[in-house]
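Two records follow; treat each independently.
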Amino acid sequence: MLSPAFSADKTTVAQGPVLGTFGVDTSGMDSGVKPGDDFFAHVNGTWVTATPIPDDRASWGMFDELRERSQMRTRAIIEEAAANPSATGNTRKFGDYYASIVDEAAIEKAGLAPLQPELDSIAAIRARQDLTIAFARGNREGGPAPIRMGINQDLKDPDRMTASLVQAGLGMPNRDYYLDARFAAQKAEYAAHIARLLGLSGVPEAEARDMAARIVALETEIAGVHWTNVENRQAEKRYNPVAVADLQTGYPGIDWAAFRTITGIESLATINLNQPSAVKGIARLVDTAPIADWKAWLRYHTLRSTAPVLPKALRDETFAFYGKTLSGTPQQEERWKQAVNLASGALGDAIGQEYVARHFTPEAKAQMDAMVKNIIAAMDMRLQNLAWMDPKTREAARTKLARFTPKIGYPDRWIDYSALEVVRGDPLGNLRRSTAFTVNRDLAKLGKPIDRSEWFMTPMTVNAYAYPLWNEIVFPAAILQAPFFDPKADPAVNYGAIGAVIGHEITHHFDDQGRKYDADGKLADWWSADDVKRFNDLAEGLVKQVETYEPLPGKRINGKLSLGENIADIAGLNIAWDAYRMSLDGKAAPIIDGKTGAERFYLGFGQIWRSKYRQAALERQLTVGPHSPSPFRPLTVRNHAPWYEAFGVQPGDKLYLPEDERVKIW
């Protein structure tokens, strides 16, 4: 469901802004709500009332509208390829990949036969050594494994690639769903779902129920050794290099020599453990939990992870739990959407080349490049005048910013898919081969120079990211659309919208975790002890402020889990405001439709957070998500003095904060 202003057609030259007369959909505002009482409702109240959440979504908002638009555009590209018998190269590959998934009749006819060799391999497991082999193959080929291996840069030597082991093994979102009584109903339904999925694979009903109970009991033990989401945010705690010679004695239960050989990391002398105690606890369970329980676990997770390319009954059952129970989504996505997502995950750069050619103009890229340059300059001005930071640290921070790399729209070099085999009519084989292709591509990076031109999102992705090891921010083409960015919109709106997001991503390099990486991307302690104390004191004020927000009765936002994102929201808005003022070059902003430049700036910011959630999805977001729920993100304006002036916010208004209670970090 797209707003009337949006379409999936090829990009055309607009005569004016996509939204409204200056870039904001004012018809979605509720002018009856005072900005100082509820800024989100003031900007978005009518939209919230009038806009239903589509049946195939757990939530709906501006990000979702753009994702829908991107999906439709991507579908057009892929379906043209799938219908073209003379297509060659990558075009043939992504067309065949997609066609194999949407051919539901062929998938139904094949049944579980394509997966049977994997299920037979699990059934043949007899010894602990067999478990190690199964988990290692899972890492190499995309199957299940309770410990995940990944290829990444060494956090303290970012010019060197290494491998990391990461806690895994849970079928529900995180440890809380197993250990917290609040989720007892979901846990019970999870067991019922496992039994049903196993039953659909041919396991007799009574046996399936018994297997499900043992799987949930095993995962509850795994959850007991998992680190919490808050613990996992601490970058320095995740850096734990271990000599491979010490793995067997320090983390017994897994045949680490066999694991390393099968996963392709046998040449490494050290390996990083992201969560050492969790790795040790899971390895112990591999050695002590009944082999039959692990076999049941492997069978279920093999079925679950391949359900998108299996018969409809298994897909429906998987959605019934993960979509309906965990997120409250009434209806599964149409098959073409699932196929677009899978094809994009496998051949994203190949599809992205065509997406960019059709939907991202050189003019839009040039305008974005100029805006990013202004925002970086605004951040530098903030750093120069930052009173709480020691002068030496401040200069080091400016050096880090000066080495900053922004990536806008699409990569300079595209992934070479020549080694990936895609066979029309073999959706499971394509899924497995594409996973193996990605793993092999990562393994090939070991011992070679770092390629800093690489992207970790496709151009069709509606998102952005900051990568501290490369000191960069990345903005794919698909997010650079209204309401985030519109070349025809008023600059005040663009600065308040995408400008605040750019500032947000820049600030991630200086937030409570990003600050731990230096100008070279190295995990290093480059702040003075006094800087850290002052920063933490300021951040604690934000934790306390955010934890007063209660999205659901009795359920408040976790201020520590969401701290990095909330710091970035506040700072991003400040930096974007400074950049907008700089862009005026001393001139007064025009009045448009009775709105000042400041008002349009904040309306642009508030509009990008238009969203609404189903209750289960909101509860899940509060439990596992590092972001505050979108309707609460505009509340960052409470800490921004120009907002008070722009909208005449006074003591007595619900959002008013005395100046000494406003959080000021960057």
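The next record belongs to a different protein.
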Amino acid sequence: MGGSPLDALDSVPGGDGFDQLTRRVVAVALVGLALRVALLGGRVSHFDEGRVAWWSMHFLDTGQFEYRYIIHGPLVQHVNKFVFGVVGPSDFTMRLFVALVGAALPLSALLFREHLAHDEVLGVAAFLAVNPLLVYYSRFFRSTLLVAAFSLVAFGLLVRAADERSFRYVHGAVVLVAFAFTAKENAVVYLLCWAGASALVVDHLLFRTGSEESGVDWLVDRFPDEDDRSRYRSRLGRYVGHVVLAVVLFVAVAFYFYAPRSPAPDAVGLWQGLTNPTQFPTVVDRTVADVVDGFEYWFGGSTEPGCDKENLVDGYLCYLGRSLETLRDYALPMMVLSVVGFVTERYARPEARLLVLFAAYWGFVSVLGYPLGTDIYGGWIMVNALIPLAVPAGVGLALVARWVRDSLDDDAVSFALAALVVVLVTGLVATSLVTGVYTNPTGDDNTMAQYAQPADDFRPAMGVLGDRAPDHEGPDVLFVGERYVRESPRRDGLEPLCTSISKTLPLHWYVTMHDATGDCARTTEGASETLGSTDPIVVVAPASHSDDLDPMLEGYERHDARLRTRGSEAVFYVDRRADTTGG
């Protein structure tokens, strides 16, 4: 028998060079970069964005960090601690890391160049760069795009490892999988999707319709003979070494990001464990316990029906319906072309390419599966499906492009149909980009805008805090009303501790961004007492309290805003009388 894949992995690959295809993919990626950074800070922070950004600032300000599974993986906190420390906190800098990862994602199409035609590689890159849903969530401080991107690149590196027979790509894939696990816990689901897609690909290989060789015969022929087995035994140490290195790389990356941090010399933290070896086992135990607790929370609990339904089936169908609605609104061309690409690959080619089948299986099962595992709907769950579906969609787009090219030499009817398809695809993508991402990113009719996205921009009111006089005394922000204020303050967490997080986020992020202080009054009577002794710059309350607050805040300018895509009306009172310039 010939050389085995294991033997071939020992060789070192050569480079492809910066050829024409690479330059074109880079150009596509630059378009994606422009789409992601333009007006990046224009949308007011979502509930989840504000919460994770607050904890990133807490890490920067205090040096304390621990894995909090409720806000998902720790990677973004570590990255944004650095970003905020260098360029300062803002909605733009908060989203910058995710935007840059999303912008670089089209470059991953080059990893599949040995299996796809050049126009298909460009098609994959184009969908990763300009699909409205992927652009929207590349401009969103949430880890879903990160785990999907890292997983796609890791998969591409494994494909490259098989193509170029190099273990270095395997180790690169392991590092990317580790980053995926530090981004979000659902990286586990990606491994399950890969296992399922692999099983379907193997079934495709073993189903030998029309061949004189059965699937079993085909499989037996690929078992190593005695000479191969002897060679494997002689190289067993090398292979074991690569396995050990892969495990070490994965554990090192995961441990670095999940391990706690603290500036206190006697605390349980990563640096204390590294500088004092006797404390290292304690740090490991703490880290492992935190990770186990987090993954048990996300995967070990019972599944709730969700979507305001009484049973799991109805809840699933509700979430699936909403997911399909989002795909219809912002990914219809990509979904249609992914089906075209898959069907053509599976049934119209003499020998289907396993890469295209694998990516299609991975993506289609994600469309059906993720609505089952979610408890609160967000359009971001479809990011997990669209990123692998970019491969069959790119194949489908290349088919359309060839059809258009060939129609130039055909009859007028063929050309008209081809032109109509191009206009429809281009028009749908462009319209969805403009309206869904830029002009209406927070509207209730935007199915990408999750409920906890504020519909109105209250930042002009909160922005006054950044211009306050340095000697301003008392709280800078006063929260009023039982809806916003707890009966008793929390022991720790998002400041001000007296607020109800579920009702007032993302306001905490803007209080912290401007290094302001806050206080609370559960009743308007309590607010009156506080206002009698202090002069807060901003007063925030549910709109239902405005009739009582308007008379006592006559010197304040009133702003109305919704803290969610619908409802949750709030009033912001800004003291324009105060000297906020410090002059």
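Discussion point: The beta strands are 477-480, 518-521, 538-542, 556-562, 569-575. How would you locate this feature using only the token line?
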